[in-house]
Design brief:
With 221 residues, the protein is mostly helical. Helix content is 81%, strand content 0%. Helix 5 packs across helix 6.
Length: 221
């Protein structure tokens, strides 16, 4: 009788563990797009890559699928240490039933909070703290995700636009030179973009532009 009760207890514990795993999986899958875009380096990378394409004026070259795919794998590369720490500190102990779900959430939030806080401007974080009339947290762990996530996203967008501005400058110079030459030759009906596009692509190739852009993105983290 005792053995039968023990068997039922083990079966029930296994079912609970499986249910928790399914619940976590469904939650992560439903929130995965928001987590990827707003809590990782994805936003900055994809915005900068889009600025490169716009500055080159190559319309849909590279295609959106290529830019998003490249941004996705660069995000996984940059976030790998953080994801590994989350797995070691929270997910693995949770699946081994060494932590409760609440404890695992607290453990998992610490690495991602440290990553976001390292790349969040104090000014942006203060904006949400003042709006919520909250006291300034003494430690990173005390910062609520509801305030840290939008502050981090705001900082990422600002940084991406700053990098995009620097990318635009050399291509803008080429456009101005080409437009001046065409006007001096009286060819005002010829669109300057058609003439400047090959020169911008040639410049981008000669300086190994994609390498420099990706290097700048990696070094920014």
């Amino acid at each position: 009788m005792n053995d039968l009760m023990q068997l039922f207890a083990d079966t029930e514990a296994t079912n609970v563990s499986t249910s928790i795993r399914l619940l976590i999986l469904l939650t992560v899958l439903s929130l995965a797009p928001a987590i990827l875009i707003l809590m990782t380096s994805f936003a900055r990378i994809v915005i900068v890559l889009s600025f490169v394409r716009t500055a080159l004026a190559t319309q849909q070259m590279p295609p959106n699928q290529v830019l998003v795919g490249l941004a996705l794998f660069l995000t996984f590369f940059i976030m790998a240490p953080t994801f590994q720490e989350i797995n070691n500190e929270a997910l693995t102990p949770l699946f081994n039933e060494e932590l409760t779900l609440d404890e695992a959430y607290d453990k998992a939030s610490v690495p991602i909070k440290h990553f976001m806080s390292d790349h969040t401007r104090q000014k942006d974080l203060d904006l949400f703290l003042k709006y919520n009339e909250a006291d300034r947290p003494e430690t990173i762990e005390e910062i609520p995700l509801t305030m840290l996530v939008p502050a981090f996203a705001l900082s990422e967008i600002k940084t991406a636009f700053q990098m995009g501005f620097m990318i635009f400058i050399p291509f803008l110079v080429i456009d101005m030179i080409v437009a001046s030459v065409l006007m001096s030759m009286g060819m005002m009906m010829l669109p300057p973009v058609m003439i400047s596009l090959p020169f911008k692509i040639l410049l981008f190739i000669l300086v190994d532009g994609w390498y420099l852009v990706i290097q700048s993105l990696l070094q920014s983290y």
